[in-house]
Amino acid sequence: MTKVKESGVFKKNSQPLADKSAGCVFKNPRGLSAGALIDRAGLKGTTIGGAEVSTKHANFITAAKAPCRRRAGPDSN
Fold first, then answer.
1. Is 41 a residue whose pLDDT tops 80?
2. Is the pLDDT of residue 75 over 70?
3. pLDDT for res 37
4. How much is the pTM?
């Protein structure tokens, strides 16, 4: 398999390409992964308004598929 095809397969398996999204949102801090930091903070799947942190790749903000179920912030449960 060529590198281009391998890259496409990797993206398809690791990014929410089928969802409406703003794409990869946050710049990676030096030596770190923004998506991994968001994931470690437990924010995958968090929905606010019509936006949701992707459950597939935490650095993608997607259009929420359902009404707000979980909110982030100090008043969240």
1. yes
2. no
3. 95
4. 0.66
- Tokens 């060529």 correspond to what residue? 2
Provide φ and ψ at 54, rounded to 5°: -55, 140
Here the tokens at position 52 are: 């949701």
Kindly give, in sequence order, each residue whose CB lies less than 8 Å from that of residue 54, ignoring residues fewer than 6 positions away.
16, 19, 21, 44, 60, 61, 62
DSSP state letter for 52: E
CB 36 within 8 A of CB 57: no
Distance CA 63, CA 43 (A): 15
* Residue 15 to residue 37: CA distance in whole angstroms: 16
Edge-to-edge strands, sheet with 51-53:
21-24, 60-63, 51-53, 47-48
